[in-house]
Amino acid sequence: MRERRGNGPRRVGESMPRLLGRLGASATPATLEAVFTRWDELVGAELGEHLRPVRVDGRALVVAVDHPAWATRARMESGQILARLRELGDTPIDRLEVVVERT
Predict the structure, then answer these.
(1) 51 occurs within a structural domain
(2) What secondary structure, in 3-state letters, does 35-61 show?
(3) pTM
(4) Cβ–Cβ contacts within 10 Å for residue 68, how many?
(5) What is the DSSP letter of 88?
(6) Cβ 19 vs Cβ 54: under 8 Å
(7) pLDDT per residue rounded down to tens, the chain (103 residues)
(8) Residue 84, Cα to own-chain centre: how many angstroms?
(9) 60: domain range?
C-alpha cells in the first residue's frame, strides 16, 4: 500500500495511531478495541457487572468499580485480566489501576 501525502481524506484506521500519539495514549487501536468492545471476555460476566474500563493512561488501564469489595477482587485478578488482554494482541498495558465510583 502506498503512503498518502497531502491533507485529503484518509481512512480512520490510518489516522488513529498518529492521533493517539498526539493525545499521549500509548495504546494501539487494537488494544483500545479489545478493552472497550470485548470487556466481558477480558474480565468475565460477573466481574464485568461491577467493573468498567475508563481509560488507558500510558501503560495503565484505569478501571472503575462500584464498591470497595469489587476493587479488591479486581486487584486480585489483575494479573489474569492483563494476561487475557495480552492474548488478544500486542499491548503496552502492564498494570491495572482501580478506582471506586459509588453511584
Answers:
(1) yes
(2) HHHCHHHHHCHHHHCCEEEEEEECCEE
(3) 0.71
(4) 11
(5) T
(6) no
(7) 455 566 778 776 666 656 555 555 556 777 788 788 889 988 999 999 999 999 988 889 999 999 999 999 999 999 999 999 888 877 888 999 999 997 6
(8) 12
(9) 26-100
* Dist CA 97 CA 32 (whole Å): 16
CATH of the domain at 44: 3.30.300.130
d(CA 81, CA 43): 6
The single residue listed with the C-alpha cell 503496552 is 92
Total domains in the chain come to: 1
44 part of a folded domain = yes
DSSP-derived 3-state class of residue 69: helix
By three-state DSSP, how is residue 92 classified?
coil
- Residue 41 inside a domain? The answer is yes
18 within some domain: no
